[in-house]
Q: What sequence folds into this?
């Protein structure tokens, strides 16, 4: 992939998942997901190349966010697989990135070995269930 | 190449193979178990990794066809709306199960007598009860005593915590006046038999890195191996062989190096699950058993039962901490379990509550329509992140002969052994039951505070429970094994997995499969001196 295409892909990822207005969530491009997305879409390299070429031809990089969104939507009829191919790897890489997990209020770690604390819960409702008596049939 | 004769050969190291191996070990007989998978290393389980949510979609997925590991065998399930789920390793499918551990109800053993459909089992709840109790001790069952949906039973460990999500859903059941109870779960909520306690990792269904979940590689097998049972891994059985006397004399298998070997045995016990067992029996056709081993009834592979599942999800206005805690186990509802003549279906179903999803699965689910790309993405994601809760519905599936496992004429596993083919369709009774259950599921979610609900019914990737394909019975013409799970046709051949179920009940079968295995082991031990008379 050309360097220009790599930069363009970063911009497109930042359009698919832009930074949140409150600064809590980063853009998908700015946290360096492009390489992983490229790797995951290798089998569809032609689709990606064609989509990038069409975006470049439309002057994608010179547009503001609203313009970029409009251009990608305009391209959907002629490049129907382009965005669809990008979305799964973009979402799946983004929502396990440490910065994103912190933005969601999570610790950026796998579940093990720390685990989670969990309340045993309120069992008061079971008094009502018990009071109904036997629910099973004798056999 | 032939190995020396052993007393007992067990084929399959999953839920049942482990239980019967452990129980028989005290006899000091020479016992070998052949398992096509290997030992799992908990350090390899996804919950140790940053990409833990993706792993469940790939190498730790439920479908053997999707995983494509060498240890797996392919299954042609194109002609079934429910797709096969299993796992091949020491521990079998308990490696990936959610560890829901309900028992069958007493009425489940008397379906013909009580409801006029299907058949009665040749044993009853009281027969299995002591073995359920023993299994609870060995597997470490968490729960709460006093559930009025069952005869008295005593869990060995404190119940799995409900958490905020469980409490929220319990509130819905309370509002409607329906039954609910903390689930019986094979999860060590406190230290148990050397197992570390559950720390609420969440993704139980990709293997428990903590070792708290009761998969048989950490429950029965370590004890059985210490007692002298040999587990031979990466050994795939091609066929069970028959001697000139009509008894089975062992099994021919492909070992870890790809060599064909024969393990001779005095007793063969098949524990390969409701699909693997009929596959093996049908692959073991011989001059004496031209239609497949132990198949003079013609019923090997017939009467396949799944549990038709539905998934009902609700979206709530506030966060539920649903990514914390055993994902499949918080509470169960059996309000609609027993037959009610007022309904338009026979038998019934259970609701089992699910936790929510992690951040990545939430996003991928959102791709289905709730979360788009571009401006507004984060707002849309925030509307669903950690705000879903729901349930699976487990419907009783009645036996029908046309639902079956046969051998695929073309598909084979990595060793060239014919693969199973599934032909299955939902009955009208199941469809009516699903419809009723989904409506009730939506109702309780709304009563719990859900603002929106959605349902998938039937749930395609829900072929976890594989039953009925070598059914028990007293009549050799109408069943494959007798009341002690011994083949009617071959007196030194036993079957101890879900294949032998006469009916399915409306609950997860593992506890019953293992209780049956312990019951069969007890029968063998009690009759060792005259087993073949």
A:
């Amino acid at each position: 992939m050309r360097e220009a295409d790599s930069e363009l892909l970063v911009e497109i990822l930042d359009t698919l998942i832009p930074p949140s207005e409150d600064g809590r969530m980063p853009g998908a491009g700015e946290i360096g997901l492009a390489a992983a997305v490229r790797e995951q879409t290798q089998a569809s390299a032609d689709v990606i190349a064609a989509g990038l070429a069409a975006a470049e031809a439309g002057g994608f990089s010179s547009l503001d966010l609203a313009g970029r969104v409009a251009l990608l939507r305009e391209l959907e009829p002629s490049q129907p697989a382009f965005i669809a191919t990008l979305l799964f790897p973009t979402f799946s890489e983004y929502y396990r990135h440490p910065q994103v997990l912190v933005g969601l209020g999570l610790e950026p770690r796998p579940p093990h070995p720390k685990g989670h604390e969990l309340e045993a819960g309120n069992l008061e409702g079971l008094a009502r269930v018990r009071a109904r008596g036997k629910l099973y049939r004798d056999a | 190449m032939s190995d020396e004769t052993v007393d007992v050969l067990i084929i399959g190291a999953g839920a049942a193979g482990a239980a019967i191996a452990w129980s028989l070990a005290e006899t000091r007989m020479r016992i070998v178990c052949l398992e096509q998978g290997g030992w799992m290393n908990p350090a390899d389980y996804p919950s140790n990794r940053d990409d833990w949510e993706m792993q469940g979609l790939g190498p730790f997925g439920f479908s053997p066809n999707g995983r494509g590991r060498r240890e797996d065998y392919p299954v042609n399930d194109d002609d079934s709306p429910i797709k096969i789920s299993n796992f091949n390793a020491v521990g079998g499918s308990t490696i990936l199960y959610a560890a829901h551990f309900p028992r069958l109800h007493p009425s489940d053993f008397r379906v013909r007598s009580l409801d006029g459909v299907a058949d009665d089992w040749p044993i009853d709840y009281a027969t299995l009860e002591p073995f359920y109790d023993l299994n609870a001790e060995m597997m470490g069952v968490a729960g709460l005593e006093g559930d009025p949906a069952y005869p008295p039973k005593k869990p060995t460990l404190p119940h799995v915590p409900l958490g905020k999500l469980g409490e929220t859903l319990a509130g819905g059941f309370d509002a409607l006046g329906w039954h609910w109870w903390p689930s019986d779960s094979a999860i060590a909520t406190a230290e148990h038999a050397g197992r570390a306690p559950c720390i609420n990792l969440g993704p139980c269904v990709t293997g428990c890195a903590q070792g708290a979940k009761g998969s048989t590689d950490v429950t029965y097998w370590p004890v059985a191996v210490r007692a002298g049972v040999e587990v031979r891994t990466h050994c795939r059985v091609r066929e069970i062989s028959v001697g000139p006397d009509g008894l089975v004399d062992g099994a021919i298998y492909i070992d870890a190096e790809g060599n064909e070997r024969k393990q001779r045995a005095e007793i063969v016990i098949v524990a390969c699950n409701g699909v693997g067992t009929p596959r093996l029996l049908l692959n073991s056709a011989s001059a004496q058993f031209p239609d497949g081993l132990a198949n003079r009834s013609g019923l090997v592979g017939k009467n396949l039962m799944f549990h038709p599942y539905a998934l009902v999800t609700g979206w709530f206005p506030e966060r539920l901490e649903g990514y914390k805690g055993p994902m499949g186990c918080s509470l169960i509802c059996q309000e609609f379990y027993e037959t009610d003549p007022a309904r338009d279906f026979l038998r019934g179903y259970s609701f089992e509550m699910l936790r929510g999803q992690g951040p990545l699965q939430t996003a991928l689910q959102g791709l289905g329509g709730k979360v788009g790309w571009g401006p507004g993405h984060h707002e849309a994601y925030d509307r669903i992140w950690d705000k879903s809760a729901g349930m699976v519905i487990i419907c009783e599936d009645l036996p029908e002969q046309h639902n079956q496992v046969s051998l695929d004429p073309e598909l084979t596993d990595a060793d060239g052994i014919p693969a199973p083919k599934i032909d299955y369709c939902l009955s009208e009774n199941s469809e009516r039951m699903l419809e009723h259950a989904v409506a009730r599921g939506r109702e309780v979610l709304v009563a719990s505070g859900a603002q929106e609900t959605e349902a998938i019914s039937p749930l395609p990737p829900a072929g976890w429970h594989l039953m009925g394909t070598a059914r028990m019975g007293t009549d050799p013409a109408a069943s494959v094994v007798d009341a002690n799970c011994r083949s009617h046709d071959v007196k030194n051949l036993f079957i101890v997995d879900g294949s032998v179920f006469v009916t399915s009940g409306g609950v997860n079968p593992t506890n019953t499969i293992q209780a049956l295995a312990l019951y069969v082991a007890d029968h063998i031990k009690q009759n060792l001196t005259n087993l073949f008379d």
